[in-house]
Specification:
With about 130 residues, the chain is an alpha+beta fold. Helix content is about 20%, strand content about 25%. The chain has a domain at about 40-125. The chain has a five-stranded antiparallel beta sheet with strand order 1-4-5-6-7. A two-stranded antiparallel ribbon has the order 2-3.
Length: about 130
């Protein structure tokens, strides 16, 4: 067989089974940290100190005092930062940084627990609860 060419299998041969990749050590540590912190699976949290982000439509916003949770299980939502009451949030959604104010009690917690965080955002947050 020529170098660089993939082997072809005829209908009487079976291709070797695909190898599954074991989870990386960092992925296992993130899952353990999320489990120990009581957060949703695939999430790790910390309180932001001096971080400032550029929020769409608002400009620079300090995250001081907000609990920021990195989301590892969603392709749409990268991170959610919320205040202690859960009525204000800053989130990275679809590559954009967005802010939400006057959120009903429990909405952010429900978002973090949602089976599909992207779908939950589209149905309950997108275009609603804008700050300013």
């Amino acid at each position: 067989m020529a170098p660089g060419r993939a082997r072809r299998y005829d209908r009487h041969e079976r291709a070797p089974p695909a190898r599954s990749t074991p989870p990386t050590l960092s992925a296992l540590l993130l899952s353990l940290l999320a489990l120990l912190s009581g957060g949703p699976p695939g999430a790790t949290g910390h309180v932001a100190a001096d971080e400032v982000v550029i929020v769409e439509g608002m400009g620079p916003v300090a995250l001081a005092g907000l609990e920021c949770i990195a989301i590892g299980r969603s392709s749409a939502v990268g991170r959610v930062c919320r205040d202690a009451t859960g009525t204000r949030a800053v989130a990275q959604v679809g590559g954009r940084t967005l802010a939400y104010c006057d959120l009903p009690e429990g909405l952010v917690a429900a978002w973090l627990d949602a089976r599909s965080m992207g779908r939950f955002h589209a149905e309950h947050l997108a275009g609603r609860h804008a700050c300013g």
